[in-house]
Design a protein that fits this description.
elongated; Nuclear Transport Factor 2, Chain: A; alpha+beta; 45% strand; 152 residues; single chain
Length: 152
């Protein structure tokens, strides 16, 4: 192979790696939603680093900050049981990967069954910091849900 071919292969390899990382991060975001919606607490907590931060900012309220896996477990298990699980949705995901770290922003919406009918409960945007861990999996170092509107 010529030097030019080597450069082209290196560029292609870099683009493929970036696409793989973005796909894995997108998969993490999907896992996060499915796991919290179906009370799979231990697996949901594993979406975060051991010192992971989850913060919820609701309009007109003080931020709810949860730090570390023990606190994340407590947060997830303290959610009241529901006859119909909530559904978390994320869209318009924009991710920037730099080596073993990444940042991402996306819109979110949470649907609930309120008073016997479907309702948009809460929406806003996620602001994420992610890291590739020693096991090669991407996890949230920090996930902040910045609420823009909420059902009373």
């Amino acid at each position: 192979m010529s030097g030019r071919d080597n450069v082209a292969m290196e560029k292609l390899s870099g683009r493929v790696s970036m696409l793989e990382d973005e796909r894995h991060i997108g998969g993490l975001m999907a896992q996060y939603a499915h796991l919290i919606d179906h009370d799979r607490v231990a697996e949901w907590v594993d979406c975060f680093t051991p010192d992971g931060r989850f913060e919820v900012r609701r309009p007109g309220s003080e931020p709810l900050v949860t730090l570390g896996r023990d606190a994340l477990t407590e947060f997830a298990t303290s959610r009241p049981p529901r006859a119909v699980p909530t559904k978390h949705f994320a869209s318009q995901v924009m991710t920037e990967v730099e080596g073993d770290t990444a940042t991402s922003t996306s819109y979110f919406a949470i649907l609930s069954d309120i008073d016997g009918g479907p309702s948009l409960n809460f929406y806003g945007r996620y602001v994420d910091e992610l890291v590739r861990c020693d096991d090669a999996l991407w996890r949230f170092k920090s996930r902040i849900a910045v609420g823009e509107s909420r059902q009373p």
